[in-house]
Amino acid sequence: MSFDLYFLKREPGGTWQDAMERLEEAAADPAPLDDTDLARWDAVRGRVRPLLPRAEEFTGESHLELSDADSGIQLSLSHRELALTTPYWYSGTDAQAMVDRLRSVAIAVETATGLTAYDPQADAAFVSDGDATAAAAFDQVAAAVRPGAERSAHRRAAPGYLLRRIFRRPS
């Protein structure tokens, strides 16, 4: 279970649901990364790397990822889809600190791409609205999953987790 943000272009007069539907339609027809995707990644990586200096980078033909094992933050790009995720490891003041860190990364990505970080949990733009309720969402999930939840080292996502999840072989 993770806290997810998607970077979208919301058309004038359109809703966030419209923008998510366009993203889901594009994702239904996966394609290899093209020059536009690679240029976007270069711009994003240049802005985000100072915020996640220990993040490892994973590359594939159709997916790129920066994964910070310490925080669990993963930034991934597939053809025309850019997403930022982190596990619900955090609660209380740690959750607020994570939200602050996610806000910094989201602003960097927005600056690099011109897209807006959308928080489907709040059904709102993350930086201007969704971040106000995000820490509470972390607390609610922590309370539902395990009362008194604390981040534990064994719950860390291994670097490249999203990449392996996307390309896992059927059993």
Descriptive terms for the model:
single chain, 171 residues, alpha+beta, 7-stranded antiparallel β-sheet, 5 helices, 7 strands, 20% strand, globular, disordered C terminus
* Shape type: globular
Overall pLDDT, averaged?
Answer: 83
> Radius of gyration over alpha carbons?
16 Å
Low-confidence runs of at least 5 consecutive residues? 148-159, 161-171
β-strand amount = 15-25%
Overall number of strands: 7
Please state the structural category.
alpha+beta
Strand order of the largest sheet: 2-3-4-5-1-6-7
How does this structure look, described?
The protein is of the alpha+beta class. Strands 2-3-4-5-1-6-7 form a seven-stranded antiparallel beta sheet, sandwiched between helices. The C terminus is likely disordered. The longest helix has 22 residues. The protein has five helices and seven strands.
